[in-house]
Write a structure and sequence with these properties.
alpha+beta, Helix Hairpins, Heat Shock Protein 90, 3 domains, 5-stranded mixed beta sheet, rod-shaped
């Protein structure tokens, strides 16, 4: 889903934040409900006691003196008066809330005391928070008969100011939520940090197989993952070394029989056959030397150093101009020094410039920076290569049949070596035919500053 964060850290934070918010909202709701339930139970108990005490006081007074006492008996939630139009229906069935009030009144006044309750129209609820508050009973009118046969009337209501929002509780819970959230963010960052370290180690392994191993510390799962990663790196390193060692040994051992064959061929009297054999032996010797150089390049462990890329290009430009081969640096952009393997990167550039001169006469180099990558573009003015072969030419010993064949002196390892070097730096090389003719080799290097 596009709405979810892309990182594991973001998703864990989202889950924790959602859970905490739901827990806090539910806690506030339950606390509000419980607080108001307790509050109104107390109010109901006080209300019943107030009504029974009022009835007992009025019972003790003559009817003529009762009216003067009503002002004293009125309260914020209870109004007392003697005359009303309320009609009591005998045998009325009350709701559970009113039935409990009637039962308590009978308990205090006696079961033989005539009384009745009628629900009044409550005021509309306007505030959202009021909808979550608990009232055990709605406002009502009550009518109770006195000992002398007169009736006393009660009007009970809930004044708006009697119900207040417990802001102190809300603030307390909010502060608690913030503290728990901060601790949760720290905990999630702490738990996901080993994954970030493992991802960085995998990225560095792609650039340098000899990168230092991971530290096998932390929880059991993290130690197991780090141990498995280090074991994988060790096996890959051993495999690459074994492969390089075998191919180097084969290439080296081939030099001796090639030398013996050359001596024997030179003893041939027929000039035409001798020249043909010597050309084949020269080609075999060239391929063997190129393979040795290729494998030595894979085994080279060169430390990373800060390098001024433009200074390197200008140095190569001067070297080629001394040989009468023009190299043009297209613009004045000077990137900041990058952390690279200097000799390896120089070899990569030399291979590409040599190819450009061999097949395109003149070479133009330009530098561009986009996002977190530096692009070195080596362009020639040759015929280019077929689109279908733009990726195939990077395979070792692969050469095109027409424009780039063995008669030009190539062995088919130059582009393979260049791409291996670029990928060892965490970048890559791609080829692209130019619109106006010629070929572009684009080296991408991650910007790693020292």
């Amino acid at each position: 889903m596009h709405l979810l964060p892309s990182s594991l850290f973001g998703r864990l934070v989202l889950v924790l934040l959602t859970g905490l918010l739901l827990a806090q909202v539910l806690s506030i709701f339950i606390l509000f409900k419980d607080q108001h339930r307790q509050k109104f139970k107390r109010q109901e108990k006080q209300l019943i006691l107030r009504m029974t005490e009022t009835v007992k006081i009025l019972d003790s007074l003559p009817h003529q003196k009762r009216e003067a006492l009503l002002v004293v008996l009125n309260t914020l939630r209870l109004r007392v008066f003697l005359n009303s139009n309320i009609e009591c229906l005998e045998g009325k069935v009350y709701s559970p809330v009113f039935a409990a009030i009637v039962m308590n009144l009978h308990h205090h006044l006696g079961n033989d005391r005539p009384l009745c309750l009628v629900e009044s129209n409550p005021a509309p609820t306007r505030r959202l928070i009021d909808r979550f508050k608990t009232r055990l009973h709605p406002p009502f009118f009550a009518k109770i008969q006195l000992r002398d046969g007169y009736w006393v009337n009660f009007e009970h209501f809930h004044p708006q100011e009697a119900i207040t929002t417990p802001w102190r509780l809300v603030i307390t819970l909010t502060v608690l939520l913030i503290m728990v959230l901060i601790f949760s963010l720290w905990a999630v960052r702490w738990l996901t940090r080993p994954l970030a370290i493992l991802a960085n180690a995998a990225e560095h392994l792609g650039r340098d197989i000899h990168h230092p191993p991971l530290s096998e510390k932390g929880p059991t799962e993290v130690r197991r993952a780090a141990h498995a990663f280090n074991l994988m790196q060790t096996r890959l390193t051993r495999y690459v070394k074994d492969r390089a060692r075998i191919l180097t040994a084969i290439s080296h051992d081939l030099k001796t029989p090639i030398t013996r064959l050359r001596l024997r061929v030179e003893q041939l009297e027929e000039q035409k056959r001798r020249d043909s054999f010597l050309r084949d032996l020269d080609e075999m010797e060239s391929m063997t030397a190129a393979t040795l150089n290729f494998m030595r390049g894979l085994e080279t462990i060169e430390p990373l150093q800060p390098l001024d890329i433009r200074a390197l290009l200008e140095s190569l430009q001067a070297d080629y101009e001394d040989m009468g081969l023009p190299v043009i640096i297209d613009d004045e952009y000077t990137p900041q020094p990058l952390s690279v393997h200097p000799q390896s990167l120089k070899r990569c550039l030399v291979n590409l410039i040599d190819n450009g001169h061999k097949y395109g006469q003149r070479v133009t180099i330009s530098l561009k920076k986009q996002a977190d990558h530096l692009y070195i573009i080596v362009a020639d003015e040759g015929l280019g290569i077929p689109e279908a072969a733009l990726e195939t030419v990077f395979e070792p010993f692969y050469r095109l049949e027409k424009s780039r064949n063995r008669s030009t002196g190539g062995t088919g390892l130059g582009l393979s070596i260049a791409r291996n070097i670029a990928r060892a730096h965490g970048g890559d090389i791609i080829l692209r035919n130019r619109a106006g003719g010629g070929l572009e080799a684009i080296i991408s290097l991650p910007v790693v500053l020292m």
